Amino acid sequence: MKTALIWPVLTLLTCSLGKNGLRTAQNQNIMTKIENNMTVNDQNYTTSITVDENPGQIYRAINNVRGWWSEEIEGPTDELNKEWFYHYRDIHLCKMKVVEMIPNEKVVWEVIENSFNFVQDQNEWVGNRLIFEISQEGDQTKLNFTQEGLTNFYECYGVCRDGWNNYINNSLYQLITTGKGEPNPKEGDGFNKALADKWKLN
Rounded distance, CA 44 to CA 164, Å? Predict the structure, then answer.
């Protein structure tokens, strides 16, 4: 539906619900979801970093997922058509498949299975693609990360956004530029613990 049609639709909905009905929190949520659907339904989470290092260094760092996301990952993360498993306690469990690898240019994972213990819809993330695209920008190299399907309609959105903001913009950036990232450790507390505490997931 085009943007120009938003207000006629909302006006019609207002008339059908009535003034008293619109005062309830439930109907306000309906209105908000309709408006949001017009503006963010086709958007995905995306973030990017720019570094002085060459595309090859970035490509290798992306595929070293234990070096920037989690030391608890099981399975090969750098082989095409292979699956690997990520988990943090029982809060987040995820099976990924490497579906595309173009050396020094692009890496794509597909989410095969996923489970969050803090959302109702266990289909969140399932079928999403996580895309890493590398490009030259003058003397520097840009890495653009996108999770296709991750929008603020997801119940997990705030947690996932904070997670990726750290793991891409901080940990992966550190791995690329210094050779040492800040992945969630096998033992002891890491960023996931801080994230779980912030969102009261423990």
Answer: 13
Give the global pTM.
0.79
Question: Using only C-alpha atoms, what is the Rg of the chain?
Answer: 20
For 82, the 3-state DSSP assignment is coil
Q: Give per-residue pLDDT as tens, 109-151.
A: 999 999 999 999 999 999 999 999 999 999 999 999 999 999 9
Please name the residue ranges forming H helices in 18-156: 19-22, 25-40, 55-63
Is residue 191 packed enough to be buried (19+ CB in 10 Å), middle (13-18) or exposed (0-12)?
A: buried
Distance, CA of 37 to CA of 30 (rounded, Å): 11
Residue 37 is encoded by which pair of tokens?
A: 């659907």
d(CA 46, CA 164) in angstroms, rounded, equals 9
Give the separation between CA 8 and CA 170, rounded to whole angstroms: 44
> Which contacts (CB < 8 Å, 24+ apart) does range 3-11 have?
3/38, 3/39, 6/34, 6/35, 6/38, 9/34, 10/34, 10/35
Spatial contact of 122 and 133, defined as CB atoms under 8 Å apart: no
Could you give the CA distance from residue 167 to residue 34 in angstroms, rounded to a whole number? 32
